[in-house]
Design a protein that fits this description.
Blueprint: H1 2-18, H2 24-48, H3 51-64, H4 66-69, H5 76-85, H6 100-109, H7 124-135
Helix pairs in contact: 1-2, 3-7, 6-7
């Protein structure tokens, strides 16, 4: 389920990048599916997250992730995701389609340049709060700390 969702995001990213007319109908169908699923999860989690939890999530993000995922192509995470999803779409804080499961999967498993975070580095409770924060995006500006 998780894997399938990830794969379709990757597929959509590549497809949109090429934007061949012949594949527009296919892409649209795929995207509707993703936006539908993501939108529901997003609405549900956003409603449940308190302002305190969002603040805690933001500070966990700054502490653990921002060195690679800050806005700007000099950050390797943002650069890699801009390449994948398109210019201006690389910063995690600007995303409106992240879900807690998706974030958790990447944080625990890592990928490419991104390290996996073990429980000793970011425990389950912290990861939950962090994943909910990112899923409640887009966030207008990254907090200073
Ligand atoms: C050392 C740099 C680095 C750190 C630290 C890092 N990341 Fe990443 N992250 C990356 C890179 C590079 C990618 C792209 C990986 C790829 O697809 O090859 C990535 C991808 C991701 C993705 C996948 C996004 C998508 O839509 O494909 C998520 C989610 C993510 N990171 C979340 C986080 C979170 C949350 C943290 C902090 C706990 C974090 N990352 C810390 C470098 C980093």
């Amino acid at each position: 389920m998780m894997k399938a969702r990830f794969m379709s995001e990757v597929l959509v990213g590549r497809r949109v990048g090429r934007c061949a007319l012949a594949s527009v109908l296919m892409s649209a169908t795929l995207m509707l599916g993703i936006v539908g699923a993501g939108g529901t999860a997003h609405a549900a989690s956003a409603a449940a997250v308190s302002p305190e939890a969002l603040e805690k999530g933001a500070s966990l993000f700054v502490k653990n992730c921002i060195m690679c995922h800050e806005r700007g192509m000099e950050h390797p995470g943002t650069a890699a995701l801009s390449y994948l999803y398109g210019k201006g779409k690389g910063a995690l804080a600007d995303r409106d389609n992240l879900t807690p499961d998706f974030v958790r999967y990447f944080v625990r498993n890592g990928r490419g340049l991104m390290p996996a975070f073990r429980i000793g580095e970011l425990n389950d409770e912290e990861l939950k709060v962090l994943a909910e924060y990112l899923s409640a995006g887009p966030h207008p500006a990254t907090p200073a700390k």
